[in-house]
Amino acid sequence: MSPSTEDHARRPVIVVGGGPAGMTAALALRAFGRPVTVLESGAEDRPRPGSRAIFVHKATLEILDRLSPGLAADLDAHGLVWQTKRTFYGGREVFARTYPPPPPGTLAPFTSLPQVDTERILLRACRASGVEFAWNQEVTGVSSDADGVTLTTRAGARWAADYVIGADGSRSSVRKALGIEMEGDRSDGWYIVIDTEEDEANPLPTERIFHYAHPRVEGRNVLLVPFAGGWRVDLQLHDDDDPDELSQGEGLDTWLRAIMPASYAERVRWASTYQFLQMVAADYTDAHRRVLLVGEAAHLFAPFGARGLNSGVADADSAAAAIHLALSSTTAERARAAVEDFSISRRRAGLYNRDAAGTALAHLRPGPEERTRLEEAAAGAAEDESLGKWLDTAPYGPVASPPCNTIYKY
Ligand SMILES: Cc1cc2nc3c(=O)[nH]c(=O)nc-3n(C[C@H](O)[C@H](O)[C@H](O)COP(=O)(O)OP(=O)(O)OC[C@H]3O[C@@H](n4cnc5c(N)ncnc54)[C@H](O)[C@@H]3O)c2cc1C
Question: Which residues of the chain have pLDDT under 70?
Fold first, then answer.
């Protein structure tokens, strides 16, 4: 569909944004038998930035498979499962664990693949389930009242719906139009995140490796994670580092060659600098309980623990269930309550995830006392495995899941 200034027929539900959260919401609505339209500002073949979310948790695979049977196996077939993880401190291994391969026919414990592939597979599932897509529809205006929502696009088209899901990412126009603030901070310190393509002639063991104080990069922390077709490398910069210098040209090449074979430094596909945002929307819905925010429209977390896309999928699942309940409700009060329950429970999960990612960030930027604790743990890890295990898991934050509202189990 091309941009237009026409008024479109009213829909029961419109999703704004065709990223992973928006497509999951659309799939979930189709699973309830509801018609759904996705308005996406970009073209179908729009370029997407880097490989971003690579780690898809088992809980996410379970949700997606419930919404579209076979989807988990499809994602799994395009991803990889690393079975070994290692943690080093100052170049010395302090923890290693190798897991057995997942038994055939069972769901993988996670899968690791570029986000572009996840999105391609989600789009295929959406199409197969009858989701309507309208591309090149940049939503700029949102107006809601007790009866529904009207959206306006930059090109002047008007779209009306009973309910809208705002899944339009970190700069969400939907959230801004509703006047909902983001609460939280930007983390201190810079990180460089790069993707490099697998050198098939010189493959590396598919192991997740974390280095505290890597001796070959002047004591910076480094995380290496394999995904299907490549490697994600996170470099944590020192306070006096210049992020621009180390994220391109000779600066990038020098540190990458110090930790990976030269052919990997020659295959960098994407490099970016980050100061991570740790923010959650003040409310996940509007005053009339007609617009529901999901994914990065509602929250931004540091990536440690892989909570961004994964929690966006859970938000989207809950939002669709709330709208299904609201549309089936016989009173306006019950319809409002369904949306309010969604907002409260998913905001609570957002706050939990923000704090959990914050715990990981604090661990990675220790003060003097915490640094002593890390050094003591590294020194004792050979005798006491629990110390090595702590060093291995702490960079990702708490392992428990956020609290969730059970009324949406179906
Ligand atoms: C380096 C990095 C690593 C990451 N690693 C992980 C990881 O391993 N695991 C994980 O779970 N998460 C990870 N994340 C986070 C993950 O990438 C995001 O959480 C995820 O993309 C958010 O999905 P979304 O659908 O909410 O938003 P987006 O992916 O941003 O999608 C939003 C969509 O809305 C469209 N849009 C925007 N504005 C409008 C508008 N006005 N009108 C209509 N459409 C609009 C956009 O074009 C886009 O298609 C990582 C992020 C980064 C940057």
Answer: 1-5, 51, 403-410
Q: What is the pTM of this model?
A: 0.94
Residue nearest atom 11 of ligand 1, based on CA coordinates: 309
Instruction: Compute CA distances 245 → 98, 249, 253, 271, whole Å.
Output: 37, 8, 10, 12
Write the Ramachandran bin of 335: left for phi over 0, alpha for psi from -120 to 50, otherwise beta.
Answer: alpha
Q: 171: CA distance to ligand 1 center in Å?
A: 10
Half-sphere exposure (Cβ direction) of 134: Cα atoms closer than 13 Å = 19
Q: Ligand 1 atom closest to Cα of 20?
A: 25
The answer to whether 295 touches 19, Cβ cutoff 8 Å, is yes
Ligand 1 center to 87 CA (angstroms): 29
Could you tell me the fold of the domain covering 11-80+105-184+278-361+401-408?
FAD/NAD(P)-binding domain (3.50.50)
How are the residues of the chain apportioned to helix, strand and coil, as percentages rounded to the nearest 5? 40, 25, 35
| 178-233 pLDDT per residue, tens | 999 999 998 889 999 999 999 999 999 999 999 999 999 999 999 999 999 999 99
Domain locations in the chain?
11-80+105-184+278-361+401-408, 191-275
Residue length of the chain: 410
